[in-house]
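Box 3.1 A note on notation
Throughout this textbook, protein chains are presented in two layers. The first layer is the amino acid sequence; the second is a token string describing backbone geometry. Keep the layers aligned when reading.
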Amino acid sequence: MKIPKSCHAYYYGGLPVKGSRRKGKLWIEGDRVSFEVPEEKDKEMVRLKIPFANMEKIFLTRDNYYGSDTVLFNLTFRGEDGKSFTLRFAPIILIPRRRIALQEEWFDYLTRMIQEHPSSPRPKQPVS
């Protein structure tokens, strides 16, 4: 599967840091997803490198809080300390059709990586 291009993404929260809805950058680096949001006044920097093996699930939600219907990615992963976090973010691009294609590309890629690198052994489904 083709690795998605790096892109800008809005951070919508989920981590124990101040400040949500900030613009950052999302990219793939080897066997991990990297996400970075710069430091702003009274808001901490977010710098993550999440190995595919630490990812548990990804699901989509919709948010209309800011006046536009936004598709949010919710990526649940385990930190170095074993604690579970759900990073909420949205890959962005200005042109709507390209934004939808970009979001689909990232969602499909992350879904596949989570399935290929399960973080915990999952029980096998019985064959009917």
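Residues 7-116 form a domain with the PH-domain like fold (CATH 2.30.29). The chain is about 15% helix and 40% strand.
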